[in-house]
Specification:
heterodimer; A: 154 residues; mainly alpha; 2 domains; 8 helices; flat; B: 532 residues; alpha+beta; Glutaredoxin; five-stranded mixed β-sheet; 10 strands; 47% helix; 9% strand; elongated
Chain lengths: 154, 532
């Protein structure tokens, strides 16, 4: 095993470990909280700043370790060189024979221009109708307050 | 040393544009400091890329979130505006948006820079790339439509169950600020689920190039429909193309040919093509073309492009500076200059003045007053704790205020001394708020002496009246906030709804948190406030 490969594997393991700890930390807080709530404690909060901080703290050394390795890897130019080589998957490359024909087809012809103009005009009409029918206010109403269910708060 | 210098490459134009876009979308930098989101009128507009509108820095709305919200509300307002916006962005830029001005794309590319073994594209990843159309059909279209139109339930499926941008920019962006400490109280199964999804996607991005864009992103799927005829994008000159396929083989996206629905116009293929057949164009203007090789663009043209690029950067930086100044300094200063009018902060009655304050409605007999007088007859007015500081924290004396109610009456907080008062902040677009309001109605029926004031967030307040018409929540007092009234800032309410403030009989805050409540919790909180 080359040094580069070893470096990449260690870094991958570190990243996976950090991710696993982050996910497990949240899960354990949730499970503990759910158990407490099941016992009848209505106001037991599963997540608090302190509890979240306590779960994140042990991950910090790993995080800084991964960060250090990343910086070192970038400076030393360590990367998976295979990833930069052209793909060689035969099934993937089957369609390549017609690539030039597709390029000809893709050329901006009059039909494309008409379609583009038509969509542009329709888009502008839709926006104007939307402004008149209150769609604009709906977007503002949703965007101006925190969408707690959207961001996963509750 | 030479090698080290080569390894640390200068960021290219695309990376700089990505960073610029991320900063411009999130120009409300003070939001990261004070923990509040921007709630000005520009939020009615959408940015082209994926950027959560609940991010403290966001100055405009997320197109995908807006689409789900519009489809949710399609029963009463057709979603023409958002569809028009998406079509406009799509026809002008197509998936160039993904490659150049999407903050989530930038995050994924940076994560992919972490040196680890990488998963290369294959026929399997190409098949997986069709998954995003399933996400689009199910989570963005079907769930909001079925629940919104069919059942009247607000449910932005993709935002709620999947979107990692919402979790990272919105939830984490808000929770990291101590000002939003009570936001932690509402975290539960939903957050855990979304957190795990975000972590898994983040991890996968390290190993696999733009995994979210390629397999999950419904916004990319939408823009992909426009890619073939979009004004801006990577174009191939068939007279120069020899069909070698190197462009497709070296491309990290699952393209079948350059410029198809998977192409994000990143422009890597321009440098790859030995024939100089590929260029990035906006209409007839070449934004990036072959600069070396046998078919390289002529030197004067390259110089002209560079000059135009410098001018464009100059304008762009000026726009960014103006945006940062506007959202962080100018607009807040203008808002501050406009003093709240309707929500008059009356002087806090001293302990000895309480009877005078509580008797007001009955004695004055003003028709527009609430039913407070009747209530004062049944309960002895309680004196406010003289030593309690005025504020909104638990243990503080809530500042007195008056506001007009939707039923035409007037609410004055000090009139309700001697009663438990519950103030709830809600919005018609907030699903948890709408779900919990029936509990407040139930509480008021069970305990008629409690006063419940439900204040609608300023945005969308015009529609709240229609929304409430057939709900039958007749025991609650509803008020609408507005920029002029300034109720939310007065009571230091957060941007996250629902928020509930509960006052005991002395007007002291016994509970103040941004979290939805069940009936059991509400009853327990009421009992606690009633006993104090």
């Amino acid at each position: 095993m080359t040094r580069t490969k070893m470096f990449l594997i260690v870094q991958a393991a570190l990243c996976a470990m950090i991710a696993a700890l982050l996910a497990a930390g949240a899960l354990s807080l949730y499970l503990d909280g759910a158990a407490k709530q099941a016992e009848g404690d209505l106001f037991y909060y599963m997540f608090t700043r302190e509890r979240a901080g306590a779960k994140l703290l042990p991950i910090l050394p790993l995080f800084f370790c991964a960060l250090g390795l990343t910086i070192a890897g970038i400076i030393l130019g360590i990367r998976d060189e295979k990833a930069e080589k052209p793909a060689r998957d035969e099934k993937l490359l089957r369609d390549l024979s017609s690539i030039r024909e597709k390029a000809v087809h893709q050329q901006a012809d009059s039909k494309t221009r008409i379609l583009r103009t038509a969509v542009l005009v329709i888009a502008l009409i839709l926006i104007i109708i939307g402004i008149l029918n209150g769609g604009l206010e709906d977007v503002l109403a949703k965007g101006a307050a925190i969408c707690t269910e959207c961001v996963g708060l509750g | 040393m030479e090698n080290k210098k080569e390894n640390i490459r200068r960021p290219g134009t695309r990376r700089l544009v990505q960073l610029y876009a991320a900063l411009l979308y999130n120009a409300n930098l003070k939001g990261f400091i004070d923990g509040h989101i921007y709630s000005g009128d520009l939020k009615a507009a959408c940015v082209p890329g994926f950027n959560c509108y609940s991010c403290p820095g966001a100055i405009a709305s997320c197109p995908l979130g807006s689409l789900q919200n519009a489809l949710n509300a399609a029963g009463h307002t057709a979603p023409w505006y958002v569809l028009g916006i998406l079509a406009l962005f799509g026809v002008i830029l197509g998936r160039t948006i993904c490659g150049w001005i999407c903050p989530l794309g930038l995050i994924q590319e940076l994560l992919h820079k972490i040196p680890t073994p990488k998963i290369r594209k294959s026929h399997i990843t190409r098949k997986l790339s069709y998954l995003k159309y399933v996400f689009l059909a199910v989570f963005v279209i079907a769930i909001p439509l079925i629940y919104g139109v069919g059942k009247g339930i607000i449910l932005p499926g993709f935002c709620k169950y999947i979107c990692p941008a919402g979790t990272f920019e919105g939830a984490v962006g808000l929770l990291q600020n101590p000002a939003n400490a009570t936001s932690f109280y509402q975290l539960g199964a939903l957050f855990t689920n979304k957190w795990v999804i975000m972590v898994v996607i983040g991890l996968a991005c390290i190993f696999c190039y733009r995994i979210f864009c390629r397999f999950i992103c419904p916004l990319g799927a939408i823009y992909g429909f426009f890619n073939r005829f979009a004004l801006t994008g990577v174009k191939v000159n068939p007279d120069r193309c020899n069909g070698c396929g190197l462009c497709v083989m070296k491309c990290q996206m699952d393209v079948k040919h350059v410029g198809d629905h998977e192409c994000i116009s990143c422009g890597k293929c321009i440098d790859t093509c030995a024939q100089g057949a590929i260029s990035l164009k906006c209409g007839k203007i070449t934004l990036k073309g072959p600069e070396t090789g046998k078919n390289a663009d002529p030197e004067p043209e390259i110089q002209r492009r560079k000059k135009a690029g410098r001018i464009a950067w100059g304008i762009a930086i000026a726009v960014l500076v103006f945006a940062v100044a506007w959202f962080n300094f100018i607009e807040p200063a203008m808002d501050q200059a406009k003093a709240p009018a309707a929500a008059v902060v009356t002087e806090q009655p001293a302990a000895t003045e309480v009877p005078e304050a509580t008797e007001a409605p009955a004695e004055t007999g003003t028709a527009s007053e609430t039913e407070a007088p009747a209530a004062t007859e049944t309960a002895a007015p309680a004196a406010p704790a003289a030593d309690a500081p005025v504020g909104t924290e638990v243990g503080n004396l809530l500042p007195d205020f008056t506001t007009d109610l939707l039923n035409g009456e007037t609410f004055r907080l000090s009139d309700w001394r001697g009663h438990v008062v519950i103030i709830n902040f809600w919005g018609t677009t907030c699903a948890p708020c709408v779900e919990e309001l029936p509990y407040y109605e139930q509480l008021k029926v069970a305990h008629p002496d409690v006063e419940i004031l439900a204040i609608h967030n300023r945005a969308g307040a015009k529609k709240a009246k229609d929304f409430l018409a057939d709900k039958g929540w007749d025991h609650l007092d509803f008020a609408l906030d507005s920029k002029e009234k300034g109720l939310l800032p007065l009571l230091n309410a957060a941007d996250a709804m629902p928020q509930t403030i509960i006052l005991n009989k002395q007007g002291i805050v016994t509970y103040n948190a941004q979290a939805p409540l069940t009936y059991e919790k509400l009853e327990a909180l009421y009992q606690k406030a009633n006993e104090e």
